[in-house]
Structures are given as structure tokens and as C-alpha cells.
Amino acid sequence: MKKILLFGAVILILFGGLAFVTTYQNSQKAEGNVYGKANLDPATIDQLDDPNYQNIILPDQLETKLENKEDTIVYFFSPRCEHCVATTPVLMPIAEDVGVEINQLNLLEFEDSWNEYKITGTPTLVHYQDGKEVDRVEGSSTEEAYRTLLEEWKQ
């Protein structure tokens, strides 16, 4: 009986230590991030250094742009969305080729934005002119369709 208790205690200590180390490592990776948050979801942490996710916009920054009646394109995504993970490496290079800036809003980190911007699924690309939504595309699309869309929105 004592062996079972001792074995259980050792297993419990090992798992507790592993959880602590993992949490500590994630907090170190998340330190000084563009999201301005101390705790990030591990899926977000995995994308911090990804060159396709370097144009992050925070909800209050987007709100300011819209209040100032700026034209902008926003890509609403989630790091856990398999369609977003497939779409982003296609979309962002096209935007660069076309000369269009796309702001990226992470819905996993800023869940209130789902309702605030009436997002029903990811990925969602929204075009704002004079601070008002004028067009949106929901779901994945082809490279050709994204290129045509961004060239149209650029004008």
C-alpha cells in the first residue's frame, strides 16, 4: 500500500513539475508580444515569429481606425482554425504583391470581436471604407480569387 502511495505521489509531482515548466516556457515566449497580454494561447504563441502573422491589429486600434473613418482591410482569424492556417500563407504574399495592407485580428485572443464585428466564421476578410464595412469574404478562397478581390479593393 505504501508503495502505491509513494508511486502516486511521485507521478503527481512529475506532472505538476511538467505543467509548471510548460507554463513558464510559454510565459517567456509570450513576453513583450504584439498582443500586449501576459497570457497567450499556445496556438498564438506558435505564430508569434511566423512572418505571415506580423501585421496584428488590436481591437482598440481597429476601433480608432474606424472612428477616424480610415479605409482598411481586416483579416479576422484564429490560430486554431485549420482554414486560416491554410489561407494566411496564400493571402499575405498576394497582399504584398498587390500593395495592399491587411491588418490581422486574432479572434482567439480577442473573443469579444466575434460579436463586435459580426464574425460568423474564420477566416473572414472585411473591407472598410470611410470607417464603414463595404464588403466581406467569409471562408477560404483560391489564390486567383484573392488576387482579384484585393486588386478591386485597392482601387
Which strand order do you get reading across the main beta sheet?
2-1-3-4
CATH class of the largest domain: Alpha Beta
| Residue windows where pLDDT falls under 50 for at least 5 positions | 26-30
Backbone structural class: alpha+beta
Helical fraction equals: 40-55%
| Annotated CATH homologous superfamily of the largest domain | Glutaredoxin
Amount of beta strand = 15-25%
Mean pLDDT, to the nearest integer, reads 88
Q: Identify the CATH architecture of the largest domain.
A: 3-Layer(aba) Sandwich
Q: State the helix count.
A: 6
Compute the number of structural domains: 2
- Measured between the Cα atoms of the first and last residue, the distance is 76 Å
Sheet with most strands: 4 strands, mixed
Radius of gyration: 20 Å
Give the SSE order as H and E letters: HHHEHEHEEH
- The CATH topology of the largest domain comes to Glutaredoxin
The rough form would be described as elongated
Number of E-state strands: 4
Outline the structure in words.
This protein has 155 residues and is of the alpha+beta class. It folds into 2 domains: 31 residues; 108 residues, 3-Layer(aba) Sandwich (Glutaredoxin), CATH 3.40.30.10. Helices cover 50% and strands 15% of the residues. It has 6 helices and 4 strands. It has a 4-stranded mixed β-sheet, with helices on both faces. α4 links the parallel β1 and β2. The longest helix is centred in the first third of the chain and has 29 residues. About 3% of the residues have low confidence. This is Thioredoxin family protein. It comes from Metabacillus litoralis.
